[in-house]
Amino acid sequence: MGRLDNGETEKESVVAEWDVGGGARPCSSEVREEMDSQMQCDCISQDRSPRSGGKFSRPARTKLVAKTKKLYVNPSCAKSHPVCPKVKTPLENCAPQRQTCGTSSLAKILSEPQTHLNACLSSGTRFAQSSKGSPQPSTYLTILNELFKSERLTELEKEVKSKTMEALESLSRKIEEARLQQEHLLQDSRLLQRDTLCVDAEKNCFLRVLRKQSEQCKKKHGQLWNQYVQDLGEIIRRKQELTLRFAKQTEELQTQLFQGKIKQSQLEQQFQSMEHISSIQKSQEMKIQMLEKELEDVKAETARKDHQAHLQFLQRKTHLMRQIQELRSLQAGDHNTPEVRQKAQLFKSTAKKVNSEYCRSVCRENQELQEDLLKLIQEYYKLESIKRKLEMCKERLKEEQCYQEALVRGRGQLKAKREKSHTCDPCPPNQGVLRPH
């Protein structure tokens, strides 16, 4: 078992050296057969040597590794099977073409990466074909079976042979996985190159759109400037019209002021007629307060009556419970006489009557209290509506007073302006009104 473990480690070291030395480097089938046969011979010789003691010697192991290195670094193998060129990333391929813009440059960008994509794909297919054309592990197995027949081998050699066959099978599986991974990477590179082409096309479209928008903005700037000049002339013309309109409006305001005086006198008369509303409002507020107090008193009275009735009910209940306990004690004492039964029935009937009468009285009182409460609530809502109406009337009167005061102030200001205009410039009153200052 020790020899087998050493053989496995040596095989793994050889495979690792092969991977580090250049990946899946395509060599000839003769070289691989020679390497495998030498590895088997070395393993068998070490197994058969009596001095090894069940373990490979260290010089033989290093010698085997050196041989495999020589075989896989042989220049003749490299010349006979060229290595696949390095595939560039999509960003390296599309980097020089991103500086162009316009329709002709877009056509160049679309054509050049396509040719490079085809070249990369052809190189990838060549590499896949070379990996497919490499010797299959079945040839190794046939050679091993021919060289080392199971009839001539010992048990240890058979174990070594089976392990080498397993290692070769795992190696073939790894080669197949690497080939599949390469195909996936090629597909990803194709998708990335297509994405870069789409991004470049979108970038050029955005540049064209931005140029068009900049030209449109310049045109719009000129149009807005011309519009501004026209609007300025229109504003000056409207200013002159507004000055004339202001003069006319001042005359109209004077007429409105005269009408306001007439209306003020009418409102004063209405205010005097509506002075009694405040007294009505106060009396209604007093009624509302009294009703609220009555409502609170009714609630307290109902709670007190309910408590008293509940206490009476509890007292009757305790009395009846005592009587029932006495009856039960009599029944338990085998005094089951007709007199006792009659007495028990009488107690039960009286208890039911008392309970029903009490429930009826409580329900009747509750109904009466609810009716009283509904009446009080209706009166409360009526008084609230009257209160709102009075408040609205009060606010309306305040607004009318403010309007009258504003009219008085405006009239005083107009008089003061008229006096100032007469003192400063002795000209006709109409010309003095036309001045906007």
From TrEMBL:
Q: Does the keyword Coiled coil apply?
A: yes
Keyword line: Coiled coil
Coiled-coil stretches noted in the UniProt entry, renumbered to this chain: 161-188, 281-308, 359-386
Ranges for domain DUF4515: 202-407
Pfam families of this UniProt entry? Answer: DUF4515 (PF14988)
Entry-linked PANTHER family: COILED-COIL DOMAIN CONTAINING 121, COILED-COIL DOMAIN-CONTAINING 166
Protein name as catalogued:
Coiled-coil domain containing 121
Q: Which gene encodes it?
A: Ccdc121
